[in-house]
Predict the 3D structure of the following.
Amino acid sequence: MIFSMTTVTHLECSVTGERYEAGKVQNLSKTGMPLLVRYDLKTARENWNREWLANGPRSMWRYAPVLPVAKPTSIVSLGEGWTPLMKLKRYGGELGCNNVWLKDEGLNPTGSFKARGLSCAVSMCVELGIKKVAIPSAGNAASAMAAYAAAAGIEAHIFMPKDVPQSNYIECKAFGARVTLIDGLISDCAKIVGDRKEAEGWFDVSTLKEPYRIEGKKTMGYELAEQMMWKLPDAIFYPTGGGVGIIGMWKAFDEMEQLGWIGPERPKMIAVQVEGCQPVVRAYNEGAERSQFFDNASTVAAGLRVPKPLGDFLILQAVRQSGGTAIAVSDDDMMRAGVRLATEEGMFIAPEGAACMAALEKLVGSGFLKANERIVIYNTGSGLKYLEAYSALFPR
């Protein structure tokens, strides 16, 4: 038997482990912490084989048994996932590394990895009968939610900083979303959603304030394992704003081990931030379990301007348990690394992904990483969405 849909059993508080019923509208746990989706992995292991994936869809829904949607008719998909894993021969060679790879999430619908999480979250909204959704966003999550809400026929309310990239604003308007621009940061946008959601009847789709976006994003971990023939790399670089990609992949690795698909080995998880907004890096360096709000957050990488991630403790757990690290780079180094990659490899990536390239250069130079290690960089978006940021390097 090949499972076609979910093996979900329940939801679980990420701190206390308290169980919550699946199949009901849920946001945070009673203690205000993120909820995680749990599955019957024993049954899945007995009835689902990784070799069968070759016959599945070329999207993240090839992993449907470990995604939360129960009914195929609930799935709202625009072809998200199954993004390419490209070897960086010239770029890696210049660093003296012959095994550097880039997982290009910029080729997802709406040009970013956010498509994965929002496909899953909006699909669950359809399944649970939710008609109105709201989100605070630095840009790409808003674009993705607007697209999937449009595809689902759901009303979308979006709150973004007024200096959000033009591409994100235009996309959201084109998709028919109700867009409000705020003079402030994503944290200010989140406060508005929190204050108004009850009166307006909105379901809050903020990062980690509902259980399902993380489930879509964890498929980046499943895909990476499958594309690398079930042997995980030695190190993973991930641009860390809300950090759900790291949290999701760490969850995916645990699930795959329980499924018998991989062993206990784990990559060093490397959280990459920018000097103008580095709450996770600061917490890591101080040995703290949680971060503090980063005042006056500033960077041209909109997705990295998150002054206090809700899931900071989960990010830090993954980094420390894996023997990884957290590192910040300057905006200047980030943007120049992005241009170097474009020049040498023909890949035009988002500043967030370019931050990982700059971090790679620093960690190889310091000796933290060795030349023969298998290294994977996650680029979370298309450079075409950040023309204003790159334009400073190319004045007319």
Notes: The chain has a mean pLDDT of 95. The first helix runs from residue 41 to 47. The radius of gyration is 20 Å.
